[in-house]
Design a protein that fits this description.
By secondary structure, the chain is an all-alpha fold. It has ten helices and no strands.
Length: about 240
Protein backbone atom coordinates (compact mmCIF):
# COMPACT_ATOMS: atom_id res chain seq x y z
CA UNK A 1 0.00 0.00 0.00
CA UNK A 2 1.44 3.34 -1.02
CA UNK A 3 2.08 5.84 1.75
CA UNK A 4 0.82 9.43 1.35
CA UNK A 5 3.17 11.58 -0.68
CA UNK A 6 5.24 14.01 1.35
CA UNK A 7 5.10 17.66 0.26
CA UNK A 8 7.95 18.47 -2.05
CA UNK A 9 10.66 20.81 -0.83
CA UNK A 10 9.89 24.25 -2.25
CA UNK A 11 12.45 25.64 -4.69
CA UNK A 12 14.99 27.67 -2.76
CA UNK A 13 14.89 30.54 -5.22
CA UNK A 14 11.09 30.71 -5.13
CA UNK A 15 11.01 30.94 -1.34
CA UNK A 16 13.55 33.75 -1.24
CA UNK A 17 12.17 35.64 -4.24
CA UNK A 18 8.68 35.62 -2.74
CA UNK A 19 9.92 38.02 -0.08
CA UNK A 20 12.99 39.64 -1.63
CA UNK A 21 12.15 40.46 -5.24
CA UNK A 22 9.36 42.43 -6.88
CA UNK A 23 6.85 40.81 -9.23
CA UNK A 24 6.89 43.92 -11.40
CA UNK A 25 9.01 47.09 -11.26
CA UNK A 26 8.36 48.89 -7.99
CA UNK A 27 6.63 45.95 -6.32
CA UNK A 28 7.67 43.74 -3.44
CA UNK A 29 7.01 43.54 0.28
CA UNK A 30 6.67 47.28 0.83
CA UNK A 31 4.00 49.82 1.48
CA UNK A 32 4.64 51.34 -1.95
CA UNK A 33 3.00 48.40 -3.72
CA UNK A 34 -0.06 48.78 -1.49
CA UNK A 35 -0.47 52.53 -1.87
CA UNK A 36 -3.64 52.33 -4.02
CA UNK A 37 -5.27 50.02 -1.48
CA UNK A 38 -4.11 52.15 1.45
CA UNK A 39 -5.40 55.34 -0.17
CA UNK A 40 -8.83 53.91 -1.01
CA UNK A 41 -9.37 51.72 2.04
CA UNK A 42 -7.58 53.64 4.81
CA UNK A 43 -6.92 57.27 3.87
CA UNK A 44 -10.13 58.03 1.98
CA UNK A 45 -12.48 56.91 4.80
CA UNK A 46 -10.60 59.08 7.32
CA UNK A 47 -10.66 62.10 5.02
CA UNK A 48 -14.35 61.56 4.27
CA UNK A 49 -15.20 61.21 7.95
CA UNK A 50 -13.26 64.33 8.94
CA UNK A 51 -14.75 66.32 6.07
CA UNK A 52 -18.32 65.31 6.86
CA UNK A 53 -18.00 65.96 10.61
CA UNK A 54 -16.45 69.38 9.88
CA UNK A 55 -19.55 70.13 7.84
CA UNK A 56 -21.73 69.32 10.82
CA UNK A 57 -22.73 65.75 9.92
CA UNK A 58 -23.19 63.53 12.98
CA UNK A 59 -20.61 60.81 13.72
CA UNK A 60 -22.95 57.91 12.91
CA UNK A 61 -23.81 59.21 9.45
CA UNK A 62 -20.22 60.28 8.70
CA UNK A 63 -18.84 56.85 9.67
CA UNK A 64 -21.51 54.97 7.74
CA UNK A 65 -20.84 57.14 4.66
CA UNK A 66 -17.08 56.57 4.84
CA UNK A 67 -17.68 52.81 4.54
CA UNK A 68 -18.36 53.25 0.83
CA UNK A 69 -14.61 53.42 0.14
CA UNK A 70 -13.55 50.04 1.62
CA UNK A 71 -16.70 48.46 0.17
CA UNK A 72 -15.73 49.66 -3.32
CA UNK A 73 -12.04 48.83 -2.79
CA UNK A 74 -12.76 45.32 -1.58
CA UNK A 75 -15.27 44.73 -4.39
CA UNK A 76 -12.81 45.93 -7.03
CA UNK A 77 -10.07 43.68 -5.63
CA UNK A 78 -12.38 40.67 -5.63
CA UNK A 79 -13.45 41.38 -9.22
CA UNK A 80 -9.80 41.50 -10.34
CA UNK A 81 -8.23 38.70 -8.29
CA UNK A 82 -11.14 36.71 -6.85
CA UNK A 83 -9.73 37.57 -3.43
CA UNK A 84 -10.95 40.32 -1.08
CA UNK A 85 -8.56 43.14 -0.23
CA UNK A 86 -7.53 42.39 3.36
CA UNK A 87 -6.84 46.09 4.05
CA UNK A 88 -10.36 46.91 2.90
CA UNK A 89 -11.85 44.14 5.02
CA UNK A 90 -10.04 45.37 8.16
CA UNK A 91 -10.95 49.00 7.40
CA UNK A 92 -14.60 48.06 6.97
CA UNK A 93 -14.51 46.12 10.25
CA UNK A 94 -13.08 49.15 12.05
CA UNK A 95 -15.78 51.39 10.56
CA UNK A 96 -18.51 48.99 11.67
CA UNK A 97 -17.03 48.94 15.18
CA UNK A 98 -16.92 52.75 15.08
CA UNK A 99 -20.56 52.92 13.98
CA UNK A 100 -21.54 50.63 16.86
CA UNK A 101 -19.56 52.60 19.44
CA UNK A 102 -20.97 55.91 18.18
CA UNK A 103 -24.33 54.72 19.50
CA UNK A 104 -22.90 54.16 22.98
CA UNK A 105 -22.94 56.76 25.75
CA UNK A 106 -21.06 59.98 25.11
CA UNK A 107 -19.09 59.63 28.35
CA UNK A 108 -15.84 61.66 27.93
CA UNK A 109 -13.68 58.77 29.15
CA UNK A 110 -15.22 56.43 26.61
CA UNK A 111 -14.62 58.97 23.85
CA UNK A 112 -10.94 59.03 24.83
CA UNK A 113 -10.47 55.26 24.71
CA UNK A 114 -12.67 54.60 21.66
CA UNK A 115 -9.65 54.57 19.30
CA UNK A 116 -7.98 51.98 21.53
CA UNK A 117 -10.94 49.72 20.89
CA UNK A 118 -10.00 49.54 17.21
CA UNK A 119 -6.50 48.17 17.74
CA UNK A 120 -7.75 45.98 20.56
CA UNK A 121 -10.37 44.44 18.27
CA UNK A 122 -7.71 43.81 15.61
CA UNK A 123 -5.52 42.08 18.19
CA UNK A 124 -8.38 39.91 19.42
CA UNK A 125 -9.35 39.00 15.84
CA UNK A 126 -5.76 38.02 15.12
CA UNK A 127 -5.45 35.82 18.18
CA UNK A 128 -8.88 34.33 17.56
CA UNK A 129 -7.95 33.47 13.97
CA UNK A 130 -5.30 31.08 15.32
CA UNK A 131 -8.01 28.72 16.52
CA UNK A 132 -11.28 29.74 14.86
CA UNK A 133 -10.41 29.82 11.15
CA UNK A 134 -8.25 27.59 8.91
CA UNK A 135 -5.45 30.14 8.49
CA UNK A 136 -4.28 32.95 10.78
CA UNK A 137 -5.09 36.56 9.98
CA UNK A 138 -1.48 37.44 9.08
CA UNK A 139 -1.50 34.83 6.32
CA UNK A 140 -3.92 37.01 4.36
CA UNK A 141 -1.90 40.17 4.98
CA UNK A 142 1.26 38.32 3.94
CA UNK A 143 -0.37 37.09 0.74
CA UNK A 144 -1.50 40.57 -0.23
CA UNK A 145 1.74 42.36 0.59
CA UNK A 146 4.02 39.72 -0.98
CA UNK A 147 1.96 39.30 -4.15
CA UNK A 148 1.24 43.00 -4.77
CA UNK A 149 -1.71 42.06 -6.96
CA UNK A 150 0.23 39.47 -8.99
CA UNK A 151 -1.90 36.27 -9.18
CA UNK A 152 1.16 34.06 -9.75
CA UNK A 153 2.87 35.34 -6.63
CA UNK A 154 -0.37 35.04 -4.65
CA UNK A 155 -0.64 31.40 -5.76
CA UNK A 156 3.00 30.80 -4.80
CA UNK A 157 2.32 32.24 -1.36
CA UNK A 158 -0.78 30.03 -1.00
CA UNK A 159 1.24 26.94 -1.89
CA UNK A 160 3.74 27.61 0.90
CA UNK A 161 1.06 26.83 3.51
CA UNK A 162 1.72 23.09 3.10
CA UNK A 163 5.14 23.45 4.77
CA UNK A 164 5.31 23.29 8.60
CA UNK A 165 8.07 25.92 8.83
CA UNK A 166 6.00 28.41 6.85
CA UNK A 167 2.92 27.78 8.98
CA UNK A 168 5.00 28.31 12.12
CA UNK A 169 6.31 31.67 10.83
CA UNK A 170 2.79 32.89 10.00
CA UNK A 171 1.50 31.84 13.42
CA UNK A 172 4.37 33.61 15.21
CA UNK A 173 3.60 36.78 13.24
CA UNK A 174 -0.08 36.57 14.12
CA UNK A 175 0.69 36.05 17.81
CA UNK A 176 3.10 39.00 17.77
CA UNK A 177 0.57 41.36 16.17
CA UNK A 178 -2.31 40.12 18.30
CA UNK A 179 -0.51 40.34 21.64
CA UNK A 180 1.10 43.69 20.76
CA UNK A 181 -2.18 45.34 19.77
CA UNK A 182 -4.14 43.96 22.71
CA UNK A 183 -1.37 45.15 25.04
CA UNK A 184 -1.22 48.55 23.31
CA UNK A 185 -4.98 48.97 23.66
CA UNK A 186 -4.90 48.06 27.35
CA UNK A 187 -2.02 50.47 27.97
CA UNK A 188 -3.87 53.31 26.25
CA UNK A 189 -7.01 52.61 28.27
CA UNK A 190 -4.93 52.64 31.45
CA UNK A 191 -3.20 55.89 30.50
CA UNK A 192 -6.58 57.55 29.97
CA UNK A 193 -7.20 57.23 33.74
CA UNK A 194 -3.81 58.55 34.86
CA UNK A 195 -2.83 61.24 32.36
CA UNK A 196 -4.39 64.67 31.96
CA UNK A 197 -6.65 64.73 28.92
CA UNK A 198 -4.44 67.15 26.86
CA UNK A 199 -1.39 64.93 27.50
CA UNK A 200 -3.31 61.75 26.69
CA UNK A 201 -4.53 63.20 23.38
CA UNK A 202 -0.86 63.63 22.37
CA UNK A 203 0.53 60.36 23.78
CA UNK A 204 -2.24 58.03 22.60
CA UNK A 205 -1.87 58.43 18.79
CA UNK A 206 1.93 58.50 19.09
CA UNK A 207 1.86 55.18 20.96
CA UNK A 208 -0.41 53.61 18.36
CA UNK A 209 1.80 54.89 15.53
CA UNK A 210 5.00 53.66 17.19
CA UNK A 211 3.57 50.19 17.82
CA UNK A 212 2.31 49.88 14.24
CA UNK A 213 5.57 51.00 12.64
CA UNK A 214 7.52 48.72 14.97
CA UNK A 215 5.34 45.73 14.06
CA UNK A 216 5.63 46.39 10.32
CA UNK A 217 9.43 46.67 10.55
CA UNK A 218 9.70 43.54 12.69
CA UNK A 219 7.41 41.55 10.36
CA UNK A 220 9.39 42.35 7.20
CA UNK A 221 12.71 41.61 8.91
CA UNK A 222 11.43 38.41 10.53
CA UNK A 223 9.94 37.07 7.28
CA UNK A 224 13.09 37.71 5.27
CA UNK A 225 15.38 36.33 7.97
CA UNK A 226 13.39 33.12 8.31
CA UNK A 227 13.18 32.66 4.55
CA UNK A 228 16.91 33.15 4.01
CA UNK A 229 17.76 30.88 6.92
CA UNK A 230 15.53 28.15 5.51
CA UNK A 231 17.08 28.63 2.08
CA UNK A 232 20.55 28.22 3.59
CA UNK A 233 19.46 25.03 5.36
CA UNK A 234 18.08 23.61 2.11
CA UNK A 235 21.29 24.46 0.27
CA UNK A 236 23.35 22.77 2.97
CA UNK A 237 21.12 19.69 2.84
CA UNK A 238 21.21 19.43 -0.95
CA UNK A 239 24.97 19.88 -0.95
CA UNK A 240 25.59 17.26 1.72
Amino acid sequence: MNSPAEPQTPPIAAAVELFDTPSRPGQGISLRAQLPSLVVNAVAPVVAYQGLTNLGVDSFTALASSAVFPVLGTGWSFARTRRPDIIGVVSLTFILVGVATSLVSGDPRFVLVKDSLMTGVFGVLGLGSLVLVPRPLMFYFGRQFSSAGDPARAAAFESMWQYPQFRAVIRVMTIMWGVSYVTEALVRVGLSFFLPIPVFLIISPLLAFAVTIGLISWTITYARTKTRRRAAELRATSGA
